[in-house]
Amino acid sequence: MRFGQSVFQSVLERLDAEDAEDGESPASAYHRIHGLNSSFVADVREGVSAASIRPGQAYIDNLEFEEPSPVDAARPEEPPQPAAPEPPPLVMPAHLTRTAPQDVAAELAISSGDTQHSLNDKRRAFAKANHPDGVAPPFRENATARMMIANLLIDEALRRISRQR
Fold first, then answer.
1. What is the mean pLDDT of residues 76-85?
2. CA 142, CA 90: separation in Å to the nearest integer?
3. Mean of the per-residue pLDDT values of the chain
4. N or C: which end of the chain has fewer CB within 10 A?
5. Is residue 158 part of a domain?
6. pLDDT at 32 (0 to 100)
7. Which of 25-29, 37-41, 49-53, 97-101 has the highest mean pLDDT?
């Protein structure tokens, strides 16, 4: 290693010196993949100029539609299929129309005898039937309101249970 050179620079110099000793010529300006004996250029046949081959034309030729074969032309045309019937309009389930706190409280049937476990079960059961992710998009606003009311009622009941302890 010379004074003032980094280890990397000294290794590069040593490798260059070894290449020069082996008699290899410096790398040319272009690179060639060793072992690839042919090029990617299409062969030019006798009597055909390279300009007339137009490799880009093959791409355009493949874009055009093919002529129907005589077998296809002999087939009778199929009658048009009737359009699929329109799905029936969405109808809001009856339980989603009840968004008053009294209605949600009646559905939950929270009593003084409920435990923390029973209240969590009621929350899960109510969410299974009313969660906004489980209903059609037009009804999500009502489902969200019902879930908010139910969560508030159950949270308040859980607070009362924790105060009684």
1. 78
2. 14
3. 79
4. C
5. yes
6. 58
7. 97-101
Domain count, the chain: 1
User: Is 47 part of a structural domain of the chain?
Assistant: no
Q: Cα separation of 149 and 100, whole Å?
A: 8
Range of the domain at 157: 96-164
In a 10 Å sphere around its CB, with 0-12 CB exposed, 13-18 middle and 19+ buried, how is residue 94 labelled? exposed
Kindly list the distances between the CA atom of residue 74 and the CA atoms of 66, 69, 78, 81, in Å, as whole numbers in the listed order: 16, 9, 12, 20
* Domain-embedded: residue 110: yes
In a domain, 107, yes or no: yes
- Find the mean pLDDT for residues 125-149: 93
